[in-house]
Write a structure and sequence with these properties.
It is a single chain. The chain has a single domain (3-181, 220-259), classed as TIM Barrel. Helix content is 34%, strand content 17%. It contains ten helices and ten strands. It has helices at residues 28-40, 53-63, 85-95, 112-119, 135-142, 158-169, 220-228, 244-253, 262-270, 275-279, and strands at 3-5, 12-14, 16-21, 45-49, 72-76, 102-106, 127-130, 147-151, 173-177, 234-239. An eight-stranded parallel beta barrel has the order 3-4-5-6-7-8-9-10, surrounded by four helices. Helix 6 (158-169) links the parallel strand 8 and strand 9 (173-177). The longest helix has 13 residues, at 28-40.
C-alpha cells in the first residue's frame, strides 16, 4: 500500500481508503472484521458515515487495537444540530478515538461562525466538504475547509478537473469517489438484424471503453482506480466495500502502474464521438 500526504498536516493516508456506512445492516462483528482486514492490507483511512450503534461498536473495537497516530479517521454525520460540538464530543466518547482527523459535511455545511466555535474545541483536526454541485466551487474559494470529497473518474469533465486543481491550489486534500461511473460500465445491447444489402461498419464501437474489460490482468474498476491515482491532486480514493477479496484487489492497485498505452486509450475514448459527450459533463 502506498501512502500520500494529507494536505499540509504532515499526516499521511493510504491511497485507498474505506467508507463505513452505518446505514448497512452489518453487525458490530462484521464491521470489526472488515476494518481489521483493511488494516492488514495497509489501509489506514476510514470514514464513518452516521452513528449506528453496530458501526460505532465495531469500529471502536477494531480501531482501538492500533496506535491512534497511525490512523486517519473521518466522520460524516447524517445530520448536525445548530451547535455540533456536543455531537462530536459524544461520538469521541463512544469510540475512544480522542479526536477526528476529518469531519465531513454533506450538502449544507455549518456557517462560518459555528465552524469557528467548533474549531476552538480542538476535537477535530480538519474539516471537509462532500459535494459535487455548483456551490462547491464557492465553498472551495471561501478557504474555510481542508478537504474535498468529490466524484472523479476517467470521464470527468473539465469543470471537475478544474475543481480538483482549485482545491489543490488551496492545499486542500482531495478524496475521490465514484471512480468507475455507470457511464463506463458495459451494458447489454439488444440484438439487431443487419439490413439486407448493407455492409457492417468496420469501425463500429471504436473509441469506446470496451478495452477496459479486455486488458489482461486488470478489471475495469482496477484500471479506473489506477488512472485516478495518477492525478497529483488526489490524496486518497474512497470505496464502500463489503467483500474482503474485492478490497484486497483494490488495495493492491496502489502498488501497480497502469499498463502501457491504457492512459492514452482512456483519453482517446473520452474525446471520441461516444466518450466526448460523457467527458463534457460537469
Amino acid at each position: 500500500m502506498r501512502y500520500r500526504p494529507y494536505g499540509k498536516s504532515g499526516h499521511v493516508v493510504s491511497a485507498v481508503s474505506l467508507l463505513l456506512d452505518g446505514g448497512m445492516r452489518n453487525s458490530a462483528r462484521d464491521w470489526r472484521g472488515l476494518i481489521v482486514a483493511a488494516m492488514e492490507l495497509g489501509i489506514n483511512g476510514f470514514e464513518l458515515a452516521g452513528d449506528a450503534p453496530a458501526l460505532i461498536e465495531g469500529a471502536a473495537d477494531a480501531l482501538g487495537e492500533v496506535e491512534r497516530n497511525l490512523l486517519f479517521v473521518a466522520w460524516r454525520p447524517t445530520a448536525l444540530p445548530a451547535e455540533p460540538a456536543q455531537v462530536v464530543e459524544a461520538l469521541l466518547a463512544r469510540t475512544g478515538l480522542g479526536y477526528l482527523d476529518l469531519l465531513n459535511f454533506d450538502d449544507r455545511p455549518p456557517s462560518a461562525d459555528v465552524l469557528a466555535r467548533l474549531k476552538q474545541t480542538r476535537w477535530v483536526r480538519s474539516y471537509g466538504l462532500t459535494s459535487d454541485d455548483e456551490d462547491t466551487d464557492l465553498l472551495i474559494s471561501s478557504g474555510g475547509f481542508d478537504a474535498l470529497t468529490t466524484a472523479y473518474s476517467p470521464v470527468s469533465g473539465w469543470r471537475d478537473r478544474n475543481r480538483l486543481k482549485s482545491a489543490a491550489e488551496r492545499d486542500m486534500a482531495v478524496i475521490a469517489r465514484d471512480i468507475w461511473p455507470e457511464a463506463m460500465q458495459p451494458k447489454a445491447k439488444p440484438f439487431k438484424m443487419p439490413l439486407l444489402g448493407r455492409r457492417a461498419d468496420p469501425l463500429a464501437g471504436v473509441g469506446g471503453y470496451g478495452f477496459l474489460e479486455s486488458t489482461p490482468g486488470w478489471s475495469a474498476e482496477e484500471i479506473c482506480l489506477a488512472y485516478v491515482l495518477t492525478e497529483p491532486a488526489v490524496t486518497t480514493v474512497r470505496f464502500e466495500v463489503d467483500h474482503i477479496d474485492r478490497l484486497a484487489r483494490l488495495a493492491e492497485v496502489s502498488d501497480r502502474d497502469l499498463p502501457t498505452g491504457v492512459a492514452a486509450q482512456i483519453e482517446m475514448a473520452r474525446f471520441s464521438t461516444d466518450g466526448s459527450r460523457i467527458g463534457a459533463r460537469g
